Amino acid sequence: MGDNIDNAGVMSIEEARKLANDRELDLVLISDKADPPVCRVIDFQKFLYQQKKKQKEIKANAQKVVVKEIRFGPNTDEHDYNFKLKHAEKFLADGAKVKAFVFFKGRTILFKEKGEILLLKFAQDLEEVGKVEQLPKLEGKRMIMFISPKAAKKKS
């Protein structure tokens, strides 16, 4: 980053400081583990700005994972099931993960098998658009299952 200094070679700290002062730049320690330590003559504020800009760009390009929840009861009827299935298909098509869970209230915890069957049927119906990330697992009063979207097929 120095004007026409690509590699000034090994020099004393005093020489490096003088070189930085002459150019009105900063002497920045790059690697203190090296032998001898590596320093650069650069504009430190510009360097920090570029680092921040790179971090912001990386963050902007990072893909954000959205998790949508769909709640069932152990005795969910067919119409409600189909309604929630359509929503889940839309969520998966949009690239969001789906967290489907059966919530057991009071004594409905006796219907654990019913809840598991419901979630497995749900996963089977969504087989074309998503894949099961985590099989149904009972956590307290909830039986939870995660479904992630399948990789989108390229249209040519």
Low-confidence sequence ranges: none
Which structural class do you get from the secondary structure elements? alpha+beta
- So how many helices? 4
What is the ordering of alpha helices and beta strands?
HEEHEHEHEE
CATH superfamily of the largest domain, called what? Answer: Translation initiation factor 3 (IF-3), C-terminal domain
> Count the strands?
6
What's the CATH architecture name of the largest domain? 2-Layer Sandwich
Question: How much β-strand is present in the residues?
Answer: 25-35%
CATH topology of the largest domain: Translation Initiation Factor IF3
> What is the general shape?
rod-shaped
Percent helix range: 25-40%
Main-sheet strand order equals 3-4-6-5
Instruction: Please compute the radius of gyration using only Cα atoms.
Output: 29 Å
- What's the CATH class label of the largest domain? Alpha Beta
Mean pLDDT: 85
Largest sheet: 4 strands, mixed
Distance between the termini: 45 Å
Number of domains: 2
Q: Explain this structure to me?
A:
There is one protein chain. The chain is 37% helix and 27% strand. The chain is α+β, with helices and mostly antiparallel strands. The strands form two sheets. A four-stranded mixed sheet has the order 3-4-6-5, covered by helices on one side. It has a two-stranded antiparallel ribbon with strand order 1-2. It is rod-shaped, with a radius of gyration of 29 Å.
